Amino acid sequence: MDTEYLRQQALPGELPVSWREPELDYCGRIDRDREDGALMVYPASFVQIRFTGSGIRAVFTNIRSYWTSCMGWILDGQEYRGDLADQGLTVLTLGENLGEGIHELCLFKRMDSCHMALFHGFLLSGDGQLLPPGPLPERRIEVYGDSISAGEVSEALDYCGQPDPEHNGEYSNSYYSYAWLTARRLGARLHDVAQGGIALLDRTGYFNEPQARGMEWMYDKIQYHPNLCEPKQWDFTKYSPQVVILAFGQNDSHPEDYMAADYDGEAARRWRAAYGRFLDTLRGIYPQAHLICKTTILEHNPAWDRAIEQVVAEKGDPGIHYFAYSNNSVGTKGHVRRPEAERMAEELSSYIEELNETHGFWE
Questions:
Q1: Helices assigned H by DSSP within the chain
Q2: 3-state secondary structure at position 134
Q3: Which of 137, 209, 233, 298 gives the lowest tally of CB atoms within 10 Å of its CB?
Q4: Average pLDDT score over residue span 121-136
Q5: How many Cβ atoms sit within 10 Å of the Cβ of residue 9?
Q6: 24 phi and psi, to 5 degrees?
Q7: Residue 363 and residue 360: Cα distance in Å, rounded?
Q8: Under 8 Å between Cβ of 279 and 308
Q9: Closest to 117 measured CA to CA, from 164, 70, 159
Q10: Rounded to the nearest 10 degrees, how much is the dihedral formed by the CA atoms of 165, 166, 170, 171?
């Protein structure tokens, strides 16, 4: 849907800003090789705009699988949230009655691939004008993770350390995931390749049950949810992180916690071998990056952390590291809430900065 389509949605006096405009700053695995819009799939994917004018709206088509579909945005330093229609077109009012001067907005995907948001563009009001973007951070990180990395249920602040309340996705917010909090603390861009329920291997974990898909299948996709789209490959040349974080190994205990039951058994050895192959794959894609392997503070059997630490040690690669939080595996019985994610981000960012002092990968 091009500028002419946006003009059809515009109110009198509004300036259409196509999703194709070079002044827009995108971050994340976003499919922009389309004719109808920029498809936002992964959590923490965003588009930024600098503009003048008294108001701004955004035009989306939603593609939903489950839960209420929510988008988030930061406008002049203030955070907001808006819901998309379950299907079809939504025009979100992002700001109105804005003052004079330059405004900055970051429009981001709060949730994982429980839905995909096809972004068509902005509508600026009050003699609004599109301005050039600011400079981009030189630091770049990438996270491969599950619901904790996606920020699922992160806003259920009354349930810190407790099991999750009943919800329909309204508490999920990637902005308060430890992944994006860590990136902001480091002043880095982020690609958050995270999906709730995912494990390493196919046929384990919760994502897309009963035909569960694992990270070994998802990691190289730009579109991947089997209920929403045909899978599409990601072009790894479009983003080159200095730090890559592997943060899965918790959903892998479903439907059978074989690592805890028999650490030296065939299933456990097969998983460790697969984890090692995945490290080799990422090392081949990003030969200069530093890989940090870990789980999270969500309650799980420590045998999984032992397995990850063992694989890292066996690799003997100075660019591959094992990291554990101070309350790793015992920090909470439910998803990680914002205060807990902030503590995780503090520990993880400090660890990354310490690594940089030795290896100098930010240079």
A1: 3-9, 147-150, 178-186, 215-218, 258-261, 266-285, 303-315, 338-359
A2: coil
A3: 233
A4: 94
A5: 16
A6: -80, 140
A7: 6
A8: no
A9: 70
A10: 10
Q: Largest Cα–Cα distance in the chain? A: 69
DSSP, collapsed to helix, strand or coil, labels residue 119 as strand
Contacts of 68 by beta carbon, 8 Å cutoff, 6+ apart: 83, 168, 169, 170
* pLDDT tens column, 342-354: 999 999 999 999 9
pLDDT at position 363 is: 77
Say if CB 94 and CB 160 are below 8 A apart. no
| Chain CA centroid to CA 75, Å | 20
Give yes or no for residue 39 having a pLDDT over 80. yes
Residue 337 has pLDDT above 60, yes or no: yes
Distance in angstroms between the alpha carbons of the first and the last residue of the chain: 41
pLDDT beyond 70 at 3: no
Over range 305-321, report the average pLDDT: 98
* Residue 46 DSSP one-character state: E
218/221 Cα distance (integer angstroms)? 6
Question: What's the CA gap between 141 and 247, in Å, rounded?
Answer: 13
Mean pLDDT of 102-117: 98
